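Figure 6 in text form: structure in, sequence out.
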């Protein structure tokens, strides 16, 4: 028999992963939160997941196998199944309580009914997110692409 010498399956100690169930907003929720806006600002958080540093326990579980050996990640890689939910939870914590703003994966979209309201909301998000690296700042462009 060809498969006779294969080892029997065995449990792998780090194979279990608790999946984070943080919800990602639907398109309907995005449209309803931004319904009355005339001015828009979009923050594109470049390399979104790589902005999140792993704790020491997670670093020992998330490794990459190369010809030179095993190496630990210091930042959250894109191929973790929990990455979108973890990142969404962190970004939602940045904008919680700020009306006229919503986060969708690697983007934060801010709106206002007029220029003054838009700038006030923008200022609140910038103050709260000053520790977060924001890039690709596109201000007040009418067509916003997701």
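Output sequence:
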């Amino acid at each position: 028999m060809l498969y006779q010498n294969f080892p029997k399956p065995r449990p792998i100690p780090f194979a279990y992963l608790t999946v984070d169930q943080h919800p990602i907003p639907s398109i309907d929720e995005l449209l309803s939160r931004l319904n009355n806006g005339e001015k828009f600002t979009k923050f594109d958080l470049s390399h979104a997941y790589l902005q999140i540093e792993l704790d020491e326990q997670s670093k020992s579980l998330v490794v990459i196998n190369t010809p030179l050996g095993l190496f630990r990640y210091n930042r959250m890689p894109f191929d973790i199944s929990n990455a979108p939910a973890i990142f969404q939870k962190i970004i939602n914590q940045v904008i919680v309580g700020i009306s006229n703003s919503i986060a969708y994966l690697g983007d934060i979209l801010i709106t206002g009914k007029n220029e003054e309201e838009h700038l006030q909301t923008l200022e609140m998000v910038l103050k709260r997110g000053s520790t977060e690296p924001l890039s690709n700042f596109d201000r007040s462009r009418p067509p916003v692409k997701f």
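Caption detail: Strands lie at 39-44, 63-66, 69-72, 101-104, 107-112, 135-139.
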